Amino acid sequence: MSSTADTLELLARYHEHHDRAAREQAIEQNLPLVRALARRFSRSDDQTDELVQAGSIGLIKAVDRFDSGRGRDLGAYAVPTIVGELRRHSRRARFTAPDGQETPQVLDEESVAAPAAETDFRRSENRAALGVAFRVLSRREREVVALRFYRDLTQQRIAEELGLSQAQVSRVLSEALAKLRRALVEP
Predict the structure, then answer these.
(1) Residue/partner pairs of 161-169 with CB below 8 Å, 24 or more apart
(2) pLDDT tens per residue across span 90-123
(3) Residue 55: which of 74, 81, 75 has the closest Cα?
């Protein structure tokens, strides 16, 4: 990473003069930070590449939101945003692993359980298992899971939509995922 002064100058050019090249340069200069954080979350080289992509989204968000009047170090400002994207990616990867695909077409148990026009028997079997597992969730839990993992909303945004606190959403989500794990592991 280059010096903080260089980065601040680039960010000022981007934010004050809409200099897209300065934005790209600031992002490029801070990619080593993303790579270092991604390696901490990674279990394999293949996973590191995916995590670098996810972490880069966090870096881009941080660059776009950075206010030099409130802080002097983009790295310190960006770390929580990058880590948030890494955690989101890791959660999504864990959650979608039983199904083998990123987004089912619909969330209700009949549709998730219904075998799609796929030739891969294992995928159909996983979809059926996931459909059965969704039966253990309450309506509220299914709604929160859908908003979090299929619409990719933050817990705070879900709380706003459902009229709950962020802590309540977190609790419902944790309980729902625990129920799904148990349902998928136990025969």
Answers:
(1) 169/144
(2) 887 776 657 444 443 334 444 444 444 434 445 5
(3) 81
Residue 150, pLDDT above cutoff 60: yes
Contact 181, 174 (CB under 8 A): no
Q: How far is CA 20 from the centre of its chain?
A: 26
The runs of H, that is alpha helices, within 18-105 are 20-29, 31-41, 45-65, 74-96
Residue from 87, 81, 183 nearest 141 by CA = 183
Tell the burial category of 21 from Cβ atoms under 10 Å away from its Cβ (0-12, 13-18, 19+). exposed
Q: Are 71 and 102 in contact (CB under 8 A)?
A: no
Whether pLDDT at 149 is above 70 = yes
Can you tell me the distance from the alpha carbon of 159 to that of 163, in angstroms, rounded to the nearest whole number? 6
Give the span between the Cα atoms of 147 and 156, in whole angstroms: 11
Q: Tokens 């930070």 correspond to what residue?
A: 33
